[in-house]
Amino acid sequence: MSQVEKKAGLLRRTSSSKKPLKEKVVLMYDEIFAKEDPAKNNPRFWDELFLMKVNLEYLESKLESVDGEEVQRIQDNINSLFHHCVQALGEEHQIKVVNALQTLCALFRGVHQKNKSASGFDIINMLMGFDKAEQRMKDLMERLDSLLCGDSSESLKSLCLKLLLCLVTVTDNISQNTILEYVMINSIFEAILQILSDVSSRGQHGYDAVVLLALLVNYRKYESVNPYIVKLSIVDDEPTLDGMGVVVHQALTEYNRQYKDKEEENQGGFFSTLTSMVGSMFIADVDEKLSVQTNEAILLALYEAVHLNRNFITVLAQSHPEIDIATTPTTPTPTTPTTPLGTTPPSLDMMNNPELPLDPNLQTSNLLITFLKYASIVIQDTKDEHRLNSARLCLIILTCIAEDQYADAFLHDDNMNFRVNLHRMPMRHRKKAVDKNIPSRPLVCAVLDLMVEFIVTHMMKDFPMDLYLRCVQIIHKLLCYQKKCRIRLHYTWRELWSALINLLKFLLSNETTLLAKHNIFHLALLVVNLFNMFITYGDTFLPTSNSYDELYYEIVRMHQVFDNLYCMVLRVSTNTGQWKEAASKVTHALVNVRAIINHFNPKIESYAAVNHISQLSEEQVLEVVRSNYDTLTLKLQDGLDQFERYSEQPKEAAFFKELVRSISLNVRKNVSLNTLSQDVLLKEFSTIS
Fold it and tell me: Which residues of 537-559 are buried (b: 16+ CB within 10 A; e: fewer)?
């Protein structure tokens, strides 16, 4: 028995010698795949077809099994099936609409699966006939728009979105899906916005709507004018923007909650006791177990909203009670055991109830806090390409936020203080932070904490240079804003200085290995210029004069690192080689750091000798520093408070192309139009009809 026949749906065997009977719908599919017009002998053929329960597997496999010559022979019938599917979407009989939507999905998937190497025009021709394609797709998009915006049942709207997701993700590279040209012309943007602006429909369909929008925005975004990009960039309707924020927030919150539960599960019981007994020797194993797939689709949606729409920035800061998903009754989302954590949408109960039962002790939260917590999980593990890309996208989003004046204003607002419990990577040399000890501070402190955490925890052999560059640049942009607005932020700056100095130390210790892959001088220059920012402008944004003294203390205390860096860059810049110019820039950037070291070191040594002290205390060194500022000469360096603004193209184009491909493949796998959902839908509409 052939593979297609196996999927035909057997009814019964009349005897052992006779072939099993086929379902009527399968027999009708076979008529479509014959040369004759199926309606020739049965004028009611198409009416009857859409009253039959769709056999998705058989129809798709039949389409995939058709060879080149057969395609030409049955093309008129396939075109006719597509046409009658679209017509059936306007029927009052809901079962016909359900079956037409599912048949369209099977058509899109089956034809593309069979013709992966065919041009987009050939696929359009096979599906609907090239000469009629424009009208067919116009009719299809109008009817889908009508179903999404009208009084259709929630199940029907869900099926419409599933069909659209199926259509958008049917090719690996979304930009090679020529059918989407018609989706650009016949926009469903307003229908998506309507779903997001309404609390009830958002609860049911918000997740699919946001993912669909994120994918449509990425169709040929660098090659032509994409109307979804244009429209998204000018949305200023508050309920719509809030709705998008709610969907993203709830998806990230659920991921954070699940991760925390898994973390606590791994830390409990006998295993926890055993690891503490043997000195946390199994930390790596625990970390591996917690390495879970991120929700890149929802992260892409957040990026596009932040990057394209300045009005969305206000949504990041809107406060609301912090949701604790574990305390709310939820309907479990059906997933398979292999479904990665965080790739399924939040449960419907959660999406439907904006006012959830909350612990009165919980503080207020906002989308930015939830995102920062999410990012702190993602950046912990960057060992493979997938997780590296997730971390990269988080840092790109933070880059866009750090450049925005309004975002910077609320990040630094002293009246908006929050306790942000970031996840920290388990490390042998430090204790786990206690949540209750986290102070309530402006949100910029949490962003800086996240950057410091990344710097400290990723100095490894497989060095993530790109992430380090982004991380240091985010810090620089925040400092530029503080300098410009003279904001004296009460932050533990010494932790940042210490992390940056240790990073320089790591670059020096691994010079040969790292230079084989990376331009370490560019990163070293950025780090040194952060210190130059503090040296030159620190008196305008450091919280107290003591902070400025402590900066000098740290530079003098760790002078050996800066001395070694100078020797290294001087050596490279005086020899001919590919890094000559890059190293020379670091040499010039070190002028003030070296001036501080060369000025204060002799003074400190002299103080120690005069007072017969072998080792000075911190306070004694600070006293020497304070009393010798007057004789210190520094050079004014230009451009320290300037930075290159983020631009997606051309630098990030290749990254987003691959990211969208990965998301598209994942969404395609998760578009659920299986037999179970068919049964549920048919049961619902048979009672209505």
Answer: bbeebbeeeebbbbbbbbbbbbb
Transcribe 620-676 into DSSP letters: HHHHHHHTTSTT------TTTT--PPP--TTTTHHHHHHHHHHHHHHHHHH----HH
Burial group, residue 193, by CB count within 10 angstroms (0-12, 13-18, 19+):
buried
Query: 15 with 6: CB under 8 angstroms?
Result: no
Q: Per-block average pLDDT, block size 10, for the chain (689 residues)?
A: 48 50 85 86 88 89 80 88 94 91 92 77 89 95 95 90 95 93 96 95 94 97 94 95 95 90 70 44 42 81 96 88 44 36 48 41 79 93 84 97 95 91 76 66 96 95 94 98 95 96 97 94 97 95 94 95 96 91 96 96 90 88 92 92 93 95 91 55 59
Asked if 95 and 151 touch (Cβ cutoff 8 Å), the reply is no
Report d(CA 162, CA 98) in Å as an integer.
12
Which amino acid would we find at residue 80? S
Query: Are 168 and 655 a contacting pair, CB within 8 Å?
Result: no
Q: What's the Cα-to-Cα distance from 599 to each of 352, 528, 556, 565, 586, rounded to whole Å?
A: 65, 18, 10, 18, 20
Q: Are strands 364-365 and 320-321 parallel, antiparallel or unpaired?
A: antiparallel
Q: Give the Å distances, CA to CA, from 267 to 264, 280, 384, 515.
A: 5, 11, 24, 39
Contacts of 356 (CB under 8 A, 6+ apart): 321, 323, 327, 328, 350
Contacts of 416 (CB under 8 A, 6+ apart): 317, 319, 410, 442, 443
- β-partners of residue 418 are 441
Q: What is the pTM of this model?
A: 0.87
Question: Helix (H, G, I), strand (E, B), or coil: what is residue 442?
Answer: strand
Tell me phi and psi for residue 442, to 5 degrees.
-60, 150
Q: Report how far residue 177's alpha carbon sits from residue 538's, in angstroms, rounded to the nearest whole number.
A: 53
Range 384-398 burial, b when 16+ CB lie within 10 A, else e: eeebbbbbbbbbbbb
For the purposes of burial, counting CB atoms within 10 Å of the CB of 262, is it exposed (0-12), middle (13-18) or buried (19 or more)?
middle
Burial label for 458, CB within 10 Å (0-12, 13-18, 19+), is buried
| C-alpha to C-alpha distance for 464 and 459, rounded to whole angstroms | 8
- The β-bridge partners of 365 are 320
- Kindly report the number of other CB atoms within 10 A of residue 224's CB atom: 11
Who contacts 30 (Cβ-Cβ below 8 Å, separation ≥6)? Answer: 22, 62
364 touches 317 (CB < 8 A):
no
Residue in 12, 116, 121, 18 with CA at minimum distance from that of residue 64: 116
State whether residue 615 is helix, strand or coil. coil
Beta-strand relationship, 364-365 and 417-418: unpaired
Residue 322 makes CB contacts below 8 A (sequence gap 6+) with 358, 362, 363, 364, 365, 369
Backbone angles phi, psi at 100, to 5 degrees: -65, -45
| Calpha distance 109→86 (Å, rounded) | 16
Helices vs strands, H then E, count in the chain? 34, 4
Q: Is 386 helix (H, G, I), strand (E, B) or coil?
A: helix
SS (H, E, C) 585-612: HHHHHCHHHHHHHHHHHHHHHHHHHHCC
Tell me the per-residue pLDDT of 315-327, one tens digit each, with 9 for 90 and over: 998 876 655 443 3
- Exposure of 529 by Cβ count < 10 A (0-12 exposed, 13-18 middle, 19+ buried)? buried
